[in-house]
UniProtKB/TrEMBL annotation:
The chain crosses the membrane at residues 53-81, 93-117, 137-163, 183-206, 242-261, 294-316, 347-369, 381-400, 458-479, 485-507, 514-533. The lineage of its organism: Bacteria, Pseudomonadati, Pseudomonadota, Alphaproteobacteria, Hyphomicrobiales. Keywords: Cell inner membrane, Cell membrane, Membrane, Transmembrane, Transmembrane helix, Transport. This is Iron ABC transporter permease. The keyword Repeat does not apply. It is found in: Cell inner membrane; Cell membrane. Its main location: membrane. PANTHER family: FE(3+)-TRANSPORT SYSTEM PERMEASE PROTEIN FBPB 2, INNER MEMBRANE ABC TRANSPORTER PERMEASE PROTEIN YDCV. It comes from Bradyrhizobium barranii. Belongs to the binding-protein-dependent transport system permease family. It is a multi-pass membrane protein. InterPro entries: MetI-like, MetI-like_sf. Residues 58-262, 343-533 form the ABC transmembrane type-1 domain. CDD domains: TM_PBP2.
Length: 545
């Protein structure tokens, strides 16, 4: 088994070195050079430390990421528990709706809410007109609200898989010893699923930390790390690759600290169980079941507020950049009169990237969770680096690395898939490793002792046991790749325009209605396969995990 783990680790490190570390090295090299190209210096970092602006940028980013993580866990964990252990009416539909916030690009959600609740938003103006004062959505509160509503599925999916993988006998034993149901949940179930909670929380924290779209729309004059990096690289202000590279290193450092805290916690505890099937639904009174249903649907409906805003805006008419209350289908007519190629590109690239990411990420997640060593620790850290790196930075690095020389990838679809796979690999690693933490290693040891090779044991025994986590990770990768913007906007060529690029250019101009219509279509075509997947998961709850 050690040989299998070593092969997986080395192969993964080589892959990440070529398509992640090498491109980043070309970009980050500028952070240690005078004016980005001169001699070596630490002056770029010294300038950041001395700058109140950049210190404020780092502080604002960390504050919003921490608050978003706390609130996402506060609503995601109860929702995951209700979906896993309570017979909620319409569970498959609820799972689909809970996944949808990840489909809608965050910058579209933020912009839709600005059109409704901004300083001159439609709702804000209407309420003020009848004497009801209301503040705007700009600033830290608005950013945290949008992050919470759009990122909480990162917590729901792994925690749901964790609750479904808990050995029912452990809960029964605690109940037989006199523990009340709330006490057992707090002291037995939650500690067991803590790897999944930490995995989801870490994903929320990092995604909020490196997100560009939401602060770009809602921050107003407040500085944010991801926005400053984008502006410095894109040259919206004076282009400064040295400062952008230094800020990128600080962003990676913040992620590394969060990852080390998680690994320190997991390393001192054991979470594996002997689960063979999902635990039974809780026998609740009609009143408690109704309460759980109301809470679950309430959380999901609240998270769909940006969707409601987008759908409403897609049906409203614009006079130039001004939104009116005149309804019509003009936005959809304009959208459908154009090419269907962006939507087809989006679905094709996201599907290829999702499958490739899980094929690469599942073995990595298994090795990271099961075989602790310095080499696997290095792989775990490197595997989380993509999530800490802005998609813009990674895309620029890929262009520099593969725009010339023996391997030229720019201008085609493959470089987009590579960017998606590298960017979304942490989803696969975290969802896989979280579920592996709960699998008893004795099952694999027994298989190997019976003469089955480690690779075959992993493929025929471990992977089926990881199925719930792998499906959750696959869904996460697919829907987030479909809504990816930061890397796509830099890498796409004329023949590979995606739906998010269409939305971005529409919002940048005077086509907010067109962007809303494109977002509505993307939601529809993504919701259908999500619903089918969640129905299948719902039917297989009682089968072997």
């Amino acid at each position: 088994m050690k040989r299998f783990a070593t092969i997986v680790t080395l192969a993964a490190l080589v892959l990440l070195a070529v398509f992640l570390l090498y491109p980043l090295a070309l970009v980050l090299d500028a952070s240690f050079r005078i004016d980005g190209t001169g001699g070596l210096t630490l002056g770029n970092y010294a300038a950041i430390v001395k700058s109140r602006y950049y210190l404020g940028s780092i502080g604002n980013s960390l504050l919003c990421a921490a608050l978003a993580t706390a609130f996402a866990c506060a609503i995601g964990i109860p929702l995951a528990f209700c979906l896993a252990r309570i017979d909620i009416p319409g569970r498959a539909l609820l799972l689909t709706l809970a996944s949808l916030p990840l489909v809608l690009p965050s910058f579209v959600s933020a912009y839709a809410l600005v059109l409704l609740f901004g300083h001159a938003g439609v709702v804000t103006t209407a309420l003020r007109g009848i004497g009801i004062p209301i503040g705007s959505i700009y600033g830290v509160p608005g950013i945290v609200i949008v992050f919470t509503l759009t990122l909480y599925p990162y917590v729901v999916m792994p925690v749901l898989a964790g609750f479904q993988a808990v050995d029912a006998s452990m809960e029964e034993a605690a109940r037989n010893l006199g523990g009340s149901r709330p006490y057992v949940i707090r002291t037995v179930l939650l500690p067991i699923v803590m790897p999944a909670i930490l995995a989801g929380g870490l994903l929320v924290f990092i995604e909020a930390l490196e997100n560009f779209g939401v602060p770009a729309v809602l921050a107003e004059d407040r500085p944010f790390l991801a926005v400053d990096i984008f502006k410095l690289f894109a040259g919206e202000s004076d282009a400064n690759p040295a400062a952008a590279g230094a800020l990128s290193v600080l962003l990676i450092a913040c992620t590394a600290i969060a990852l080390l805290v998680q690994r320190h916690y997991l390393g001192k505890r054991r979470f594996s169980t002997n689960a063979r099937s999902a635990p039974a639904k809780l026998p609740l009174t009609p009143g408690l079941r109704l309460t759980a249903t109301i809470v679950s649907w309430g959380i999901v409906i609240a998270s769909l507020l940006p969707f409601a805003a987008v759908l409403m805006i897609s049906l409203l008419r614009f006079r130039g950049p001004v939104l009116t209350w005149e309804f019509g289908l003009g936005n959809y007519a304009t959208l459908l009169s154009g090419s269907y190629r962006p939507l087809l590109n989006t679905l094709t690239l996201a599907s290829i990237a999702a499958v490739a990411t899980m094929l690469i990420g599942a073995p990595i997640g298994y090795v990271v969770a099961r075989h602790r060593s310095r080499l696997s620790g290095l792989l775990d850290f490197v595997g989380m680096v993509p999530f800490a790196v802005s998609g813009t930075i990674l895309a620029i690095g890929l262009i520099i690395a593969f725009n010339s020389g023996p391997l030229i990838l720019t201008g085609g679809w493959l470089i987009l898939v590579i960017a998606y796979v590298v960017r979304k690999l942490p989803f696969a690693i975290r969802s896989s490793s979280a579920i592996v933490h709960q699998l008893d290693p004795s099952l694999e040891e027994a298989s190997i002792n019976l003469g089955v090779s480690p690779s075959k044991t992993f493929a025929t025994l471990t992977v089926p046991l990881m199925a719930s986590g792998l499906v959750g990770g696959l869904v996460l990768v697919w829907i987030t790749a479909a809504s990816e913007l930061s890397a796509t906007i830099v890498l796409y060529a004329s023949g590979w325009v995606t739906t998010t690029v269409v939305m971005y250019h529409a919002i940048e101009g005077t086509g907010a209605g067109l962007a809303a219509a494109a977002a509505a279509v993307l939601i529809l075509v993504t919701a259908i396969p999500l619903l089918l997947i969640n129905r299948r998961i719902n039917k297989q709850e009682s089968t072997v995990i």
